[in-house]
Amino acid sequence: xxxxxxxxxxxxxxxxxxxxxxxxxxxxxxxxxxxxxxxxxxxxxxxxxxxxxxxxxxxxxxxxxxxxxxxxxxxxxxxxxxxxxxxxxxxxxxxxxxxxxxxxxxxxxxxxxxxxxxxxxxxxxxxxxxxxxxxxxxxxxxxxxxxxxxxxxxxxxxxxxxxxxxxxxxxxxxxxxxxxxxxxxxxxxxxxxxxxxxxxxxxxxxxxxxxxxxxxxxxxxxxxxxxxxxxxxxxxxxxxxxxxxxxxxxxxxxxxxxxxxxxxxxxxxxxxxxxxxxxxxxxxxxxxxxxxxxxxxxxxxxxxxxxxxxxxxxxxxxxxxxxxxxxxxxxxxxxxxxxx
Length: 340
Ligand code: PEP
Ligand code: MN
Known about the structure:
Oligomer: single chain
Number of helices: 11
Shape: elongated
Low-confidence stretches: none
CATH superfamily of the largest domain: Aldolase class I
CATH topology of the largest domain: TIM Barrel
Strand content: 15-25%
Bound molecules: phosphoenolpyruvate, manganese (II) ion
């Protein structure tokens, strides 16, 4: 359930509500909005005495949550959440301004990474992507540079101010990746790695949560809820395509996810048209479509020499294509009352 406090409810009244919640054997998460404070009650609250809470001072109403996720739900928070990306360029996801995160699929080499970082910044990005730990289908494929890759990403941030977005694949990598990253990416293959979701939920870093390849929207939202239930509300959702019977694309990119997430949740939702299509020639148009339908940002694979990329070259656009795309996105963003 969700306890909506009256406008102007005092801190003492909120504290008293929290005590009542804890006495019921439940936990709370307090969301302070611009207009009012809401206390989301965590745990199985069926058969609990809601009247006690309803009668407490400063409480306006107690609402059952219809969605199985609470903290991620619009019912818990009406205003959209804005998640700052970090870095020094002021990028964020969820506000009027769109997040533009670009960079190679994986960090391959120091000089090449630094070069592409400067290029994506010049093309308009405020975030730099690049995997140091790569989830690969084959155990014989390039697995990423590990900590060396993280050091290179941090050097790129120092030179450009771009926020570093990079994947954490397991619990034992969380501390290490936190030392270098601004945003922790939880990849599609790990969307239901519940222990990892809890572990990133314990951190206070923004988490970019990718939709699993066969996850329903509800499962996706519940994965976000796992992270939030550990106290980390800085979650950015990412639609990256799902597996269907279709073979012309690597994945099928369901853009209807974007308006639907905006309807049911306050969390920002960005789109990854690179994993979403698998083909560089489809990426610019899908970026435009994503912005047109309300995406809060884009994460795009961008490589200076895609033909020789160690991973995902076929779906990587060049910095020049990104630069041209940025000019089109500006117009589309303006048409839907956004900025980039
Ligand atoms: C990636 O971003 O390169 C990646 C592996 O993403 P996903 O988890 O969406 O497959
Ligand atoms: Mn990739």
